[in-house]
Amino acid sequence: MDEAASTLRVEKQASGDDWxxxxxxxxxxxxxxxxxxxxxxxxxxxxxxxxxxxxxxDEKAIVVLASLALLRQHACLREQIETALDQGLxxxxxxxxxxxxxxxxxxxxxxxxxxxxxxxxxxxxxxxDREVLTPESNETLKGEALAYRTMLHGKRRDAGHADPEGRMxxxxxxxxxxxxxxxxxxxxxxxxxxxxVVALASFATIGSLEEFFAKFAISAxxxxxxxxxxxxxxxxxxPYIGFxxxxxxxxxxxxxxxx
Length: 259
Description:
The chain is mostly helical. Among the domains are: about 1-50, no CATH class; about 140-255, AhpD-like (Up-down Bundle), CATH 1.20.1290. The protein is about 70% helix and about 0% strand. The protein is globular.
C-alpha cells in the first residue's frame, strides 16, 4: 500500500468517517444486519483509493455525478454535488455533466437530477453561467457535428452503430449525432477530455453498452487519457455499479484495443 492511501485509511478509521460512497441513509442498520460491514467498508475504501489515486479530483467527481444521476440515486447525488462544489467544481460543469448524461439515459433523468442541483445551487446563491452556443442553421449544425465527431473518433467515427448507411440505425443515429455532438459536446463548461470521462462513466453505469464504452475508451486514449486512467474510472465507479459491469466494459475495451 502506498503511503498516501495508508495515511488516508488510518485517518478515516480513527475518525469513523471511513466510507465516501454515501447511500443517503444511516449505515448503522447495515452493520446490525450484516456483521463486519463497517470493517468491509474500510477495506474496500482503502483498495479503491489506492487503485484510483491517479485520477484528477475533478474527474473523480464527474464520474460519480454522472453515475448517480443515471442511477437516480438522488440522496447520494445531493451529497456528491455538495462535495464537488466544496472541491471547486463549478456549477456550470456540474450542470453539463447532468445534461450530457441525458444523451445516454434520457432527459427525464436529466430533469430529475437538475432539480436536485437547483436546490443546492439556490441554497448557496450560485448559478451556472448562461453562455450557450450561437443558433445555427440545420446544415451548419450537421457540419459542426461531423467535424467534432471526426476530431473525437477519427476514422472510427462511422463504425458499428454509427454507420450512417445502416438500414435500421442510420436515421436514429443521425439525430443522436447531430444533436449530441453538435449541440451538447460543443457546449462550454466541460473540456473534451472531461466529456469523454462523462461518456465512459455513463456507458459503464448503464451496462450492456460495451461496444460504446470500447469505442469511446479508444478515443480517450487518443486524446490524452491513459489506459491506467480508463481502468481507474471503472475502479472508482465500482462501489456504485458493482464489479461485473466494470469488468465487462474493460474486457470489451481490451478486445477492441487489440489485447
